[in-house]
Amino acid sequence: GAGVSQSPSNKVTEKGKDVELRCDPISGHTALYWYRQSLGQGLEFLIYFQGNSAPDKSGLPSDRFSAERTGGSVSTLTIQRTQQEDSAVYLCASRGVGRTGIPNYGYTFGSGTRLTVV
Amino acid sequence: RKEVEQDPGPFNVPEGATVAFNCTYSNSASQSFFWYRQDCRKEPKLLMSVYSSGNEDGRFTAQLNRASQYISLLIRDSKLSDSATYLCVVNKGTSYDKVIFGPGTSLSVIP
């Protein structure tokens, strides 16, 4: 597609429930990132996928968080047993790679999923 | 010390004013630098990359000072539409793929 698409745009869930957030990156973009942004705060890195390489999970805050990327395209971020502190906007971004193999400058972000845990 | 730090703001300036934001980074191996803009309740969008020689895009000028490990963004002739949060972004060490977003500086341009 023309941009990064995320769904749902808003999600309200009860504490303890599992949620799945979806990201469709720009076609052909090999790098995909998940970030989290709490109200009034900066972006917090969660996880990064690059092609067929093992994902960089160093930003995941706990083992309740997991993500996968199927076929090098769509990614799903799963939060199990949600807690109120998980409430935030979850942003997905993708980035292309130029012919030289150097990543194209600039991430394109989706509009995010606003997660509210009640 | 945080990896990327920015002026806390908020900056409240009148229309037409010139305003400058600074950003410092801790990793001297960083090689890629960007400014992003984030409107309220919207996703960040790339404003401009920052090149070693400095670069200009219309009313916006970005500068890099490697020796002091800071980058700056200068906005001339501020418009109401410039009101947003400006995020400094620096790649993590020598990796092109991992970047660190600064906490952002809020700008409000007042009529």
Structure description:
- The complex is a heterodimer of chains A (118) and B (111).
- Chain A has 118 residues and is mostly beta strands.
- Helices cover 0% and strands 45% of the residues of chain A.
- Chain A has strands spanning 5-7, 10-13, 19-24, 31-37, 43-50, 65-69, 75-79, 88-95, 108-109, 113-117.
- In chain A, a hairpin with a 5-residue loop joins β6 (65-69) and β7 (75-79).
- Chain A is globular.
- Chain B is mainly β.
- In chain B, β6 (55-57) and β7 (60-65) form a beta hairpin.
- The N and C termini of chain B lie far apart (37 Å).
- Chain B has no helices and eleven strands.
- In chain B, strands 2, 4, 5, 9, 10 and 11 form a six-stranded mixed sheet that branches.
- Chains A and B meet through β5 and β9 of A and β5 and β10 of B.
Helix content of chain A: under 10%
**What's the SSE pattern of chain A?**
EEEEEEEEEE
Instruction: Choose one word for the global shape of chain A.
Output: globular
* Chain pair sharing the greatest interface: A-B, 21 and 18 residues
Major sheet summary line of chain B: 6 strands, mixed
| Sheet/helix structural class of chain B | mainly beta
Would you tell me the overall average pLDDT of chain B? 91
The tally of strands of chain A reads: 10
Work out the radius of gyration of chain B: 13 Å
Strand residue percentage of chain B: over 45%
Taken as a percent bin, the fraction of beta residues of chain A is 35-45%
Q: How many runs of DSSP E, i.e. beta strands of chain B?
A: 11
Q: Specify the oligomeric state.
A: heterodimer
Q: Whole-Å distance between the termini of chain A?
A: 33 Å
- N-end to C-end Cα span of chain B: 37 Å
